[in-house]
Write a structure and sequence with these properties.
Layout: E1 2-3, E2 6-13, E3 24-30, E4 37-43, E5 53-62, E6 66-74, E7 81-88, E8 99-100, E9 108-109, E10 119-120, E11 126-127, E12 133-141, E13 144-152, E14 159-160, E15 166-168, E16 174-183, E17 199-207, E18 212-221, E19 226-229, E20 240-241, E21 248-255, E22 260-267, H1 273-279, E23 284-285, E24 289-293, E25 300-304, E26 312-323, E27 328-330, E28 338-347, E29 354-355, H2 365-371, E30 380-389, E31 397-406, E32 409-417, E33 433-438, E34 446-454, E35 457-462, E36 467-472, E37 484-489, E38 495-505
Parallel strand pairs: 29-31
Antiparallel strand pairs: 1-2, 2-3, 3-4, 5-6, 6-7, 7-8, 7-9, 10-12, 11-12, 12-13, 13-14, 13-15, 16-17, 17-18, 18-19, 18-20, 21-22, 22-23, 22-24, 24-25, 26-38, 27-37, 28-34, 28-38, 30-31, 30-37, 31-32, 32-33, 34-35, 35-36
Length: 519
């Protein structure tokens, strides 16, 4: 949340080890979303209503500028979940270090119609025209995912609305729901309670079964208290994802200081548990993303917050470089293990786009990428970046495009393929060929890509942020100064690197002590 000039990040954290368990709400603060000061935990198990766990939730800024947190408490060994609240002990403390959990908790308890062991992650509250606050809680009944809706006049006494705001059969449990308005035009964000014209709503859920995040764009019928996805939004496992890679449990918030909505997600480890224990940490926050509705009205666009650019240091540039089939050009002069790379590719014709196999129609993009990887020669593509590459390409994580001709239209596949990211061969490592399709107009015959590379993570944004993919990778050769970065083409259509800008990225101040605080 943003409050009185300070960004607050609360995150699920185990203070006793780098494996899941003993979860508290760790708390860090920042004035720029880049440099962070860690504080003592904001919320931790201490009362009868959260003795067995303090799980996820959300912050809401109430009238008179008063922050309040709704969070899920675990009350017994059977995993029974209730919704509690916490408020700052001292509003004049700029960091809001201490939080109080009053004795009128819990505020919301599951009734008999709710699966009380799958009932969690309350959203930021929004205020309706009728003067009632509303919040959603993620749940499941059988295999039907639910966004259960509650309303309250005073944020204290909550009543369940008879029907969920939305539900979808066959999706499994909905975690970390997020519900917010977006403007039809422009990139500005809106407060959750915004009730003006020319808006749509977005419902995002994290699916427990697939471990991906999905969203739809639609209409919020405030009279009936129902959300109706647009017909252009597939509602389920085949729907749009926030990110097609290792990205989960995201949360968005409205930032009034810059009139934007920011989404922030978590990227879990995909190496072995033993590795996590050895290194002493597990799980990272990705780079915060500004998000808005694409002009088509069909999907979101996401882009790293502008503050990230303050970490840019040495810059190098390439332009008008041709890549014939099999070519690769090394990008030298920056630190490839810690870099920000923006590149625009062009091609003179779409004629060589290979046909899209009708047998792939029911496959996920990830499956197609596994079949048509970066080493499989194509027509128009594969072309893109080889990130975190060793000198002789024993290790590399390619991020690339491949264009298919699908009957009367073109289909753009974007991949971030971890399958060759490391020579380490532990069977428990997760090294998928993450992929998504990019809904982009190819009349300009250009495709753009931005990749943020940071040692064990590659966050990529295709076509200006229409398709995003985060990969966690663990090279053993392509590390530190031994990492390399290339642009490549493995298709018969010649590709031109119109422009490539790459920066060495500096280190933010993170987990730094109060003694060095600029506050």
């Amino acid at each position: 949340m943003y409050f009185n000039g300070v960004y607050h990040l609360f995150y699920q954290y185990n203070p006793h080890g780098s494996v899941w368990g003993n979860i508290v709400w760790a708390h860090s603060v920042s004035t720029d979303l880049i440099n962070w000061i860690p504080l003592e935990p904001g919320i931790y198990p201490s009362k009868v209503f959260d003795k067995y766990g303090t799980w996820s939730g959300s912050a809401t800024i109430l009238p008179n500028n008063k922050p309040i947190i709704l969070y899920t408490g675990i009350v017994d060994a059977k995993n029974t979940q209730v919704q509690n609240y916490a408020i700052p002990a001292n509003l004049s403390d700029p960091f809001l270090r201490k939080w109080i959990k009053p004795d009128n908790n819990p505020l919301i308890v599951a009734d008999a119609s709710i699966n009380k062991t799958q009932f969690r992650d309350p959203t930021t509250g929004w205020l309706g025209r009728d003067g009632y606050w509303r919040t959603l809680i993620g749940s499941v009944w059988g295999k039907e995912g639910l966004a259960i809706l509650y309303k309250s006049r005073d944020f204290m006494k909550w009543t369940k609305v008879q029907h969920p705001l939305h539900s979808v059969e066959g999706t499994g449990n909905w975690e970390c729901p997020d519900f917010f308005p977006v403007l039809l035009h422009g990139t500005n964000g809106l407060d959750a309670s915004y009730r003006g014209k020319n808006i749509k709503h977005v419902l995002k859920v994290s699916l427990d079964v697939t471990r991906f995040e999905y969203y739809t764009v639609g209409i919020y019928d405030t009279k009936r208290d129902r959300y109706i996805p647009d017909k252009t939004s597939i509602d389920g496992w085949k729907g749009l994802r926030v990110d097609y890679g290792n990205y989960y449990a995201s949360k968005s918030f409205y930032d009034p200081s810059k009139n934007r909505r920011i989404m922030w997600g978590w990227a879990n480890e995909s190496d072995t548990v033993n590795d996590d224990v050895k290194k002493g940490w597990a799980g990272i926050q990705t780079i915060p993303r500004k998000l808005w509705l694409d002009p088509s009205g069909k999907q979101l666009v996401q882009w790293p917050v502008e503050e990230l650019e303050t970490l840019r240091e040495k810059k190098i540039q390439l332009s008008n470089r041709k890549l014939n089939k099999g070519d690769k050009i090394e990008v030298k002069g920056i630190t490839p293990a810690q870099a920000d790379v923006e590149v625009t590719f062009s091609f003179s014709s779409l004629d060589k786009a290979e046909p899209f196999d009708p047998n792939w129609a029911n496959l996920y993009a990830q499956d197609v990428c596994a079949i048509k990887g970066s080493t499989v020669q194509g027509g128009l593509g594969p072309f893109g970046l080889l990130t975190l590459a060793s000198q002789n390409l024993e290790e590399y994580t390619p991020v690339f495009f491949r264009v298919f001709n699908d009957q009367d239209k073109y289909k753009v596949l974007m991949c971030s393929d971890a399958s060759r990211s490391t020579i380490e061969n532990d069977k428990t490592m997760y090294k998928p060929s993450f992929a998504g399709y990019v809904d982009v107009d190819l009349t300009s015959k250009t495709l753009s890509l931005r990749s943020l590379i940071d040692h064990s993570v590659v966050e990529s944004f295709g076509a200006g942020g229409k398709t995003c993919i985060t990969s966690r990778v663990y090279p053993t050769l392509a590390i530190y100064d031994n990492a390399h970065l290339f642009v490549f083409n493995n298709g018969t259509e010649t590709i031109k690197v119109e422009t490539l800008n790459a920066w060495t990225m500096g280190k933010p101040k993170m987990n730094w002590s109060f003694g060095h605080s600029s506050f």
